[in-house]
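FAQ: What does the model actually see?

It sees only this:
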Amino acid sequence: MNGTWIGLLGMILLVSSWVPQTIETIKQKKCPLNFRFVLIYVTASSLLTIYSYFIGDWVFLTLNGLAALQSAVNLYVKLRYE
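And it is asked to produce this:
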């Protein structure tokens, strides 16, 4: 397991940091984050998800996939309701 648990812990902490913001965004139908930031974050996380798949790193695949999903929710709300 050579340190995989460190990656798992980091993944859980990083993904969980987006959860409160995503829940608030869904409830209020308003995303206070800067549009460019969210757009870049969705794009970067999506590209890193693809890269993680190619190199076979499931920790980073999961991390970036979940980060892309949560930031995509924020982007959707920003585009749809603002």
